[in-house]
Amino acid sequence: MPTLNKIRTAVRRQSPPPASAPADPVLRRLRAALTVFFALDGFLFAGWVVRIPAIKHQTGASPSALGLALLGVSAGSVAVMMLTGRLCRRFGSHPVTVVAGICLALGIALPPLTHSALALGLVLLVFGAAYGAINVAMNSAAVDLVTALRRPVMPSFHAAYSVGGMLGAGLGGLLAGHLSATRHLLLLTAIGLVVGVAAGRVLLAHPAPRAERAAAGDPAAASSTARRTGLVAVFGLIALCSSYGEGALADWGALHLQQDLGTGAGAAAIGYSLFALFMTFGRLCGTLLLERLGRTGTLVAGGAIAAAGMLLGSLAPAPWMAFAGYAITGFGLANSFPVAIGRAGELAGPSGVATASTFGYGGMLLGPPAIGLLADRFTLSTALTTVALLAAGGACIAWSTRKMTR
Predict the structure, then answer these.
(1) Phi-psi domain of 243 (left: phi exceeds 0; alpha: psi -120 through 50; beta: other)
(2) pLDDT tens digits for 230-272?
(3) What's the rounded Cα separation, in Å, for the pair 48 and 55?
(4) In CATH, what class is 222-406?
(5) Domain 28-210 sits in which CATH superfamily?
(6) How far apart are CA 399 and CA 161, in angstroms?
(7) Cα separations (Å) of 162 from 42, 74, 119, 273, 282?
(8) Three-state DSSP class for 22?
(9) 10 Å Cβ neighbour count for 22?
């Protein structure tokens, strides 16, 4: 027994101590500041989206010209993601997050200053670059913080993005009839700058927790570059499968309800709102799901639920069944993207986040036009079943690579 007691004492001395009280407030402040940046990102982007009809009228753009101009957001985002990963490695994810957030707030004021589709497209390249940069930077910062907290809280950050998006869309709906697009977006710029500077002071005051552990050596760095690259690509594909569904439902979900099920415009809008609401709810439950099911279990269960929900949503004969399908799909897709991005960041740092994010935004770019082409060839309801197909594909990828990614 004395020997056993000595062993226990030695183990306690060698074990890492629990987070000390002075360190906990720092991590809590960092988590709060990052949550604010995620919410601000969603808030500003949704504020821009709800004013697209007004910008279209102002520029006099045709539907096709507007569609090409809107591609500037996605093109600008994808173009800077890998560069942002390198900047995060060079300067740290916290300063890059703050700078990108301020640029995003300034960039949202530019679209109402344009008077042609060409000028709008060029401006949206700038806005999209800021949007892509902040997404890579703040996700990289979140990965570091999740590691320091030793809790799988990544979905909570993405829940904040969803909540911010709903608030931005709601405020935009309230102000659309009272303020011009120029005044509305300038107001969002002012809000973004004030909030970004306030939350940015916290990030700039403290380096990313991962930087303190770099000297001690990261276990992920010990694995081969080729293996890590392959695993990052795996999680990038899972992110693509998830974001394909998000992009497809955002652009085509309401039209399916109107065109195929005969609902009014208001009911069609409710359908997508249910999707977004249940996605937010799923992300709020994400930490609990990850603690109970683990990464693989969460990805597999989420993909299966989303596939079942989208089959119901796309093939349902009645609107209420389609509403239920949209809600189930939102809950199922909720955590696939955050988990995939988080794991890619753990494997390869900001470069991993950038690579997986590029895959993910590729899915958002691929979804809407793919649905359109398939709808022309078959029907819109049939085309939307590809969302279920890719959700199931993401689940299969997660299950088949579970031993590699453990």
Answers:
(1) alpha
(2) 899 999 999 999 999 888 887 788 888 888 888 876 777 778 7
(3) 10
(4) mainly alpha
(5) MFS general substrate transporter like domains (1.20.1250.20)
(6) 28
(7) 6, 19, 29, 11, 11
(8) coil
(9) 7
